[in-house]
Amino acid sequence: MSMMAIPAIETTVNWTIWILSLCACAVIAKTYHIKAQYSGVTNVLFENRNILTSPYFFHMAFEIILWNIQTPPILIFWKPFFRLINYFIFLRLYSIVIYLNNAVYVYRTFCRAMAAISDLPLSTSFLIRTSMVYHKTRVGLSVIFLMWLTVGFMYAKAETVAVSDGLWFSFQTLATLGYGDFTPITVGGRAVAFIAWLFSFFIMAYLIVVGQMILKDTDYNMQLLSYCHDLTHQLHTRSAWTIQVAWALRKAQKQRAANPGRRAELKVLLLSWKLTHVIAALRRTRQSLNANQKSFRETQVNPLTGLSAYQYNQFVYETHAAARRLQRVKDVDRVYLTLRDRDIVASSLTRKDIEEMIIPTGSNYLEEESALQAANELLFGSGSGGGGIVQTVAATGLSAEEVEMWKKKVQTLEDKITLLGETIDALSAIAVTHPPSMSHSQV
């Protein structure tokens, strides 16, 4: 009786998993449908909002496929192979990675603020990339260990051998040794061997990437130069492809206006979807080309600054540009304060008058900078004493009423910032937990 009850229990479990998977797929589809309606841009070339034209369409399809990887409840043929599929249900644990990313980055106010300032999305791919780059040893050993255990247990189940023999076979296959003492015979065992072969390729590729990081600068630059050459040709090809698809879409829109119908509408939808992805591919190619052109390594680095000649010149240029922008702002403020409350037409001013406003006769830049710094300290509450106020007002040309007005404005701004911070903290504290879906984490 116990032997007859095992298949019945297995069938019940498969039906339960299948029903729960269908419910999860329905929830995922509805979530992405709502996201396509109210979040982000779907397709500016198509009039309506549709999940098929949303940039999250492939994310939704990928999640639905993951939630349908399981043994079918009813098996007619290839029973050993289909029963092996249940071992891949662990792929659904990607939701744990998403929850981990949300806990580490997304639900933290400081991380969201830094992401907004640096224009860097706190996506799941960001967590994976940073982990694989800055924690190479820990992540690499963990992934290899999990692959070894997965392949070992799957082989032991498929070939009906001991777990120790399955782990030994897993070691041979992942290490690309192949001693030959264990050979898969069943269909499931051969499928496990194929999966182990794919895992070994992943391990080799990861080790090669880690080794590439320690290449010499000359080798790295030579490889990068060849890659930039390929990207240039790819950029020309995708540019021509974009023009062709755009022309086809324009022609289809004219045909739809002349002969409206479901067929013409479907053609416009498909061409708009295609043009959107072609433009995105062209943009990615251009960004990749620009990023690789800026990543050439220079062999000569200044030991004092730690920067190469190119990096130092770029730093000096950006510093000078920032100084020029700041000086323009100060000049505009000085002219504005001079002309305020005066009945003077700006067009009647000569160049000499403007120079006199910006650089008064007998003035010294250093003295003016110190006076402006003292005024800033006074406005932010750092100054003390009536003598300091009189000296600062005399140096900056501001009256006591103007100084008091600016102090009130600064205090009002500080109160608003404090209120905004309290509101953000309150919202983050009462924020609901989202379901484990990649629709809440950009990949």
Task: Give the SSE layout.
Blueprint lengths: L1 H37 L18 H10 L12 H6 L9 H13 L2 H10 L5 H11 L1 H24 L3 H12 L12 H26 L4 H42 L3 H32 L15 H31 L11 H8 L6 H15 L6 H11 L3 H30 L14
Detailed description of the structure:
The protein contains 16 helices and no strands. Among the domains are: 135-214, Helix Hairpins, CATH 1.10.287; 217-293; 309-363, no CATH class. The longest helix is centred in the middle third of the chain and has 42 residues, at 217-258. With 443 residues, the chain is mainly alpha-helical. It has helices spanning 2-38, 57-66, 79-84, 94-106, 109-118, 124-134, 136-159, 163-174, 187-212, 217-258, 262-293, 309-339, 351-358, 365-379, 386-396, 400-429. The chain crosses the membrane at residues 12-32, 52-69, 81-100, 139-156, 191-215. GO terms for molecular function: small conductance calcium-activated potassium channel activity. Residues 144-211 form the Potassium channel domain. Pfam families: Ion_trans_2 (PF07885).
